[in-house]
C-alpha cells in the first residue's frame, strides 16, 4: 500500500500564524505537525509516501524530510496549485498510486493510541473489499462528517455537518482505498463550493456496499489541529503524555527503527545529527538501550 499526506491549503483559520509558513510545518509541542500523520502511516507499514502541498510550500517540506532514505522510506512530492478538495489528492497522485491501494491522511490530523499500528495494518488488508474509514466518537458531531453504522460496523451513510446527526461518530482524516479510487475520484463533479468532496467519494463506496468502518474507541486520541485552540490542545496533550511516560509521540526516527525500516546504527547516527536538542538525546538514549 502507498500513502498520501495532503498538506496543502492556505491555513486561513490560523492566520496570521500561517501567512508565511505551511500549517503542517508549525510545531506541535516538540516536532513539526507533519511528523504526526507521517508517523501514523509508517506505523501502518507504509514506506512509499507522496506529500502534496502548494508550490510555495513544497521546498520547505523537501528540506525537512528529503527523499526519505535516511528513514528507510521513499518520499515523493507533488504540487496542488490551489485547494480543490480532499478527493483531488487522487487526481494529483494518480501516477504515484499506479496499480496499488492507497491510504490518504490529512496533514493536520493526529492519531495516538496503543496498538494503532496493528489496527491500521489489519485495515490495510481489507482494501481488497473496497474502502476503510476510521470513525471516532465526538461530543459535538454537527461540526464533522458524521457516519451512520449498522450493528456490524458497516457504513450506511455519511453526512457533512448535519443539523440532526444520526450518530456521534465523526469520520476522521484517514482513509484507505483500493485502486478503484483513482477512477472514482476522476468521475467526481465539484460540489457547490467548487471542491471534490471526500464524502461524495466515500458515498460511492457506500452505494456499492464496499465501505468498511473501523471505529477508534476508548484508548485512542484523534485531534484535528486546524484551529488555534485545537493546535494548543494538541501540543498540551503531547507534552503531558511525553512528560509522564518519557516516550515520544510521532518520533519518526523511532517509528522507522521499531518497524525495521532502519537498524540501530542508523538510529544512533540520526540521534547524533540532532544531538544539540532533547529530541536528538532521546534518539541516542533509545539507541543505547537497544544495543
Please give a handful of descriptors for the protein shown.
single chain; 291 residues; alpha/beta; 7-stranded mixed sheet; two-stranded antiparallel ribbon; 13 strands; 34% helix; 23% strand
Quick description:
With 291 residues, the chain is α/β, with parallel strands linked by helices. It is built from eleven helices and 13 strands.
Query: Number of domains in the coordinates?
Result: 1
Q: What is the number of strand segments?
A: 13
| DSSP summary: helix tally | 11
The CATH architecture assignment turns out to be Alpha-Beta Complex
List the helices and strands and how they pair.
Layout: E1 2-6, E2 27-28, E3 31-32, H1 35-43, E4 48-53, H2 58-65, E5 74-79, H3 89-92, H4 94-97, E6 102-106, E7 109-113, H5 116-124, E8 131-137, E9 145-149, E10 155-160, E11 169-177, H6 181-187, H7 198-207, E12 211-213, E13 220-224, H8 228-245, H9 252-258, H10 264-273, H11 278-290
Parallel strand pairs: 1-4, 1-6, 4-5, 8-12
Antiparallel strand pairs: 2-3, 6-11, 7-13, 8-11, 9-10
